Amino acid sequence: MTAPTTSTTGRRADYLDRLGASDEEGAIAVALAALDAGLDVETVLLDVVAEAQREVGERWAAGSWTVVQEHIATHISERVVSAVARHRPADPPTGIGRIAVACLDGEWHALPARLLAEVLARHGWEVTFLGSSVPAAQLAVHLHETGPDVVAVSSSLPSRLPAARRMVEACRASGIPILAGGPAFGPQGEWAGAVGADGWAPDARAAAALLENTLPRRDDGRVDDVSREEQALLQTRRPELVAGLAARVRAGHGTDPLADDQLADDLGHLVDFLAAAVYVDDPGLLARFLRWVGTVAVPGGLAREELRAVVEDLVERLGDSPRTVALLRSEPVQEACSPAAAA
Amino acid sequence: MSEAVVVTGPSHPGGEEIVHAANPAAGRLLPGLVVGTPVADAGHDALTDAVVRARPGFETEVAGRVLAARAVRLDDDGAVVDALTCWYLRDVTEERRGSASLVRAQARAQFLAEAGRALHGVLHLDRTLRTAASLAAGTLAPTVLVLLADGSDVVRWARADRDGARPHTGEMTRADLRATPRLHEALTGRAPVDPWVGVELAELPVWHEPPTDRVVAVPVPGTVVAGVLVLVGPDLDDDVLPLGEEYAVRVGTALSAAALYREQAHLGHVLQASLEPPPLPDETSGGLLVGSAYRPARESLRVGGDFYEVLPRTAAGRTPFLLGDVCGKGIEAAVLSGRVRQSLHALRLVEQDPATLLRLLNVALLDAADLDAPGAAVPMPRFATMVLGDAESLPDGGSRLRLATGGHPPPYVLHADGRVEEVDVAGSLVGALRDAEIGHTEIDLAPGETCLLYSDGVTEARGGPGGREFYGEERLEAALAGCVGAPPQVVCDRVLQLLSDWLGGRDHDDVALLALQAPRGRHV
């Protein structure tokens, strides 16, 4: 990895300013000026655009930017990627191989995958970008029709991991190796192997480097029948669990529809993260989510003080699922519920 | 036949190891063995080595026979230096050959089973071809070439030079095969492969280096394709040919399936491409900003009954747009949505006023439905709801929208202060009654204001905590109110994302959103 020079740092700050001002033309101008000043496409896309977007994500997670501001910034960055690609088109593919780049089903953040597609095209790959939230069935159809050498899937949310499994299966059936990328697969990619991906890369540069060589085929992952069953049960019982939990932890539940929706949203996410944690059998996945709960103040949202009651209630309701209960009672999860554990 | 026995030991205490005795059977198994001579001169290295190293036994091949020997020490009193050793020898050629052929048969069966799985996993012609070459390389022969003709003028090939390497691929035309008539003939699939075809193959532009080893060609049979599997330098003692023929049969079925799938997929693609919502103009010259979102109910199909489009600005300076919903789902609904769009394209040539246009479309759809074959195998949907209109720039930078609707949920306007207002316009289903009621109105968007057109798949999406509740107008209005200041594409993305959260992975109807925004002027 090349260290970003001071000039990229400065340009990134300028770029972030333009995003903050919702100034699409300005953002495009910063990116194109960087290209014209001699920075290569990969540096502009990854060290300016992607790094700025990471900062945007942090501002959103910290509550200093609204979700709409984040959406606008992301939209602008997508336009910037298009403008950069038009300004400096990739050379024709070198024959290194064909790759399909897709976002996991349910993953709407297409930008990281889009960046990967652009970077790989500049490493000589013939790239097909399938877009955001690609259903496994659509991926399977694409594999049959175009027969790529490799598939790369991107996702930011670990709660989408069970969907990753269906995509992995689509690739396995076709004998095509699959590379996983993005924070959904764990801080060190530990959950990529669990769902049976053949490789993991933290970012586009690492992915390009990894793909220089043939991906070694890994085993089928460690998701067993127990995990699968308990995760499926959680998914089926999700509505009932969310409704029950809401009534249990919130005294005034049922009086303010907007607050109710927000609480239901948060509890729904919590159940999704629990299901994903059970799926890859790692309490750390749920603990990370729990530590984040309540760090952004959303009116009516799930509060840190309500976490312990939620987890206790889940233990009671899910007595038939031993692995789920063990996970809820595990030390990392219990500790993450404490008010002091906030991220 | 009695067991062969050889006795070895020192000629005298501490002396050189010699052959003390050997029975006639041993003489037959170890020809040249002379009693009394030093073991080192016996001419059988395996025996010499076993004696010198005091091994418990040895196995060796003599004159094409496999011999197994085990040692028995004759006086095991610790005086090793003086010990005589008796070697019992057995001819185990048949035994070994038996188990070796069993192992080979198992390996062959496993190879074919795995090949079947790998070949049939992908219904893609080129990939199947590459897989066919790379699976066989290293097993059937060091280098494997597969040539494939699929009825067109193109002959594809894939060559794998060793186990695990990425295969090389390429294409030739039939004209390139003029110098190789036998191969040309073989690739018609009508004639058996001429054994002399191997001689021609060196001429083909498919090699890294022309093969110097023996070349064997095996026909690849198929119903819609014909191919030839070429093995370069196969080990012919090893029953490779029957295995290669079996393998070629599997390759042939897989390639045929892939070729058939390709035809069907192409048909589907052409249909799909004609029915998918066309991409929005990147910048409408009228200054109107647009954004859209689309999720068909059957996502692997990628098309559905909802449709929208924004057309280039007309000579009259208006940008026409449209969003509608055909009653029904899936490909049947998509076909009607295509008919609606095509009818409108034609009608626009003679009429631009949205309300009049929609009345004409109503009649056109009714007439077309009368022409549909009665009792058709697939019942076709015939009704649609839609909002159609056009936008015109105003001197202050705003936009004036003319809207006409038939049976469709009224659009929303998002004002700059976050207020969300429903446009007061309604009408009846299009394509149902000859005297359909068409509602129409005109609204002005101030700079930065957004008009959102949507299909009822949005408000009627069932989800939420209980999984059965409609998303509803109220939530849509709240979602829209949260989008002040966002460009139209972000408005659509945001609403679609909130809707997906609401759905939580459950099934849904087609969903379409189209946002139209008057530009806000230059950034300060």
Structural overview:
The complex is a heterodimer of chains A (343) and B (524). By secondary structure, chain A is of the alpha/beta class. Chain A folds into three domains: 1-89, Methyltransferase, Methionine Synthase (B12-binding Domains), Chain A, domain 1 (Orthogonal Bundle); 90-222, 3-Layer(aba) Sandwich (Rossmann fold); 225-341, Globin-like. Chain A contains 15 helices and five strands. Chain A has helices spanning 6-20, 24-36, 41-61, 67-87, 111-121, 136-146, 161-174, 190-194, 204-210, 225-249, 257-280, 283-292, 307-317, 322-329, 331-336, and strands at residues 98-103, 126-131, 150-154, 178-181, 199-201. Chain A has a five-stranded parallel beta sheet with strand order 2-1-3-4-5, with helices on both faces. In chain A, helix 5 (111-121) crosses helix 9, helix 6 (136-146) runs parallel beside helix 7 (161-174) and helix 10 (225-249) crosses helix 13. The longest helix of chain A has 25 residues, at 225-249. Chain A is globular. The two termini of chain A are 28 Å apart. The model of chain A has no long low-confidence stretch (mean pLDDT 89). With 524 residues, chain B is an alpha+beta fold. Chain B folds into three domains: 4-91, Beta-Lactamase, CATH 3.30.450; 102-267, 2-Layer Sandwich (Beta-Lactamase); 276-517, Phosphatase 2c, domain 1 (4-Layer Sandwich), CATH 3.60.40. Chain B is built from twelve helices and 22 strands. In chain B, the strands form five sheets. A five-stranded antiparallel beta sheet of chain B has the order 2-1-5-4-3, with helices on both faces. In chain B, helix 3 (93-120) runs antiparallel to helix 4 (125-136), helix 4 (125-136) packs antiparallel against helix 7 and helix 8 packs across helix 9. The radius of gyration of chain B is 41 Å and the shape is elongated. Chain B starts with a strand and ends in a 7-residue tail after the last strand. The model of chain B has no long low-confidence stretch (mean pLDDT 86).
